[in-house]
Amino acid sequence: MSYANADSASTADRLKQIGQRRIAVLFHEKESPRSVRRYVVDALAQIWREQGHQVVYLFGTRVWEPADIILVHIDLSVIPQNYLVFARRYPIVLNAWVSDIRRINYSKLIISNDCKYHEPVILKTNLNYSGIPEVHLGKWRFLKRMYKRVIRNYSNRVFPNTSSVPFPLRRMPGLILEKFLPEKENGLFVVRNYQFLGNRGTAMKLLGREPVVKGRTSIAMVPIDPDPEIVRLRAQMRFDYGKFDYVMHDGSAILLDANKTTGALSMTLTPELLSMRRFRAEGLYWYFQNQGHWNLAQKG
Asked: How many domains does the chain have?
């Protein structure tokens, strides 16, 4: 599937219809113009600017800037309430209802501490991205010690069964065990990611030799259509913007990770990935044409 010329003929008409807009992105107060370059949203903001819009970055809630729309982009698994209250002062709020992305809230693979499971399992953090954002932003200080001693060595490690997981790890707060249900193709492990904004989304299939496939460890990336069930799940979880990682297992899509602050540093930026970003960037304009009710429209 090629996005290089997708809907390009109507872009000018769409921009004429919505006019020049002011777009705000709300970051954590400890972020900075330099630190946010690691996020995909910074690349999308450049595209919006190229298309004639103003984009303002807000760091914390102390200063209010007028804007037509705001994207809540707080890189924590649980967003402090004051950010959400602040964002709701704007006419259109993206990810207004995505306040808690801890795995315990959406994973269907979690195994209880007392369960004996004789198939492979994977050890993860309940927090998104191994809790690294919480460490960097100083949200929970105890995580610094925990990260150095445990998470760095054990997070995303696959074990043959529950009995092979060291007992202290099974009882440690913040860690969870999930069934490991990999997707494989021609001897390689597969993970699929679905990135989206508004009514636009793109999907890739990543292949790698390691059980846990990441952008930096993949050896091939193939554009695909997102699975319809994952698209429906996105609407149910009320995500306007973000990325879902999933696998296909026995014909069903299984969500592995839900992320609302997608990073931009794990993959080499190819012309194809750039085309995908440009395609998704225009998903923002849907809100101006439809009074900001993407999720209501999707949920019927």
From this structure: 3
Return the pLDDT at 142.
65
- Measured at the alpha carbon of residue 35, what is the angle toward residues 294 and 127, in degrees to the nearest 5? 60
Retrieve residue 272's tokens.
């194809």
The parent domain of residue 32 ranges over 8-101+289-294
Assess whether pLDDT exceeds 60 at residue 2: no
**Domain membership flag for residue 269:** no
* The pLDDT of residue 296 is above 50: no
Tens-place pLDDT, residues 172-208: 888 999 999 999 999 999 999 999 999 999 999 999 9
Of 1-10, 69-78, 205-214, the one with minimum mean pLDDT is 1-10
The Cα–Cα gap between 89 and 167 comes to 48
- pLDDT of 299 > 50? The answer is no
203 and 171 belong to one structural domain: no
Structural Rg of the chain based on CA atoms: 20
Is residue 46 included in any domain, yes or no?
A: yes
- Which residues have a Cβ under 8 Å from the Cβ of 274 and sit 6 or more positions away? none
What average pLDDT is seen over the chain?
A: 91
In the sheet that holds 54-59, the strands lie side by side as: 54-59, 22-27, 69-72, 93-94
Q: Is there a single domain that holds both residue 133 and residue 55?
A: no
Given 152, 179, 206, the domain boundary residue is 179
In a domain, 280, yes or no: no
279 within domain boundaries: no
Same domain (yes/no): 213, 242: yes
Q: By the 8 A CB rule, do 155 and 123 touch?
A: yes
* pLDDT given for residue 173 in this prediction: 86
Outline where 69-161 has alpha helix (H). 81-87, 132-136, 142-146, 152-154
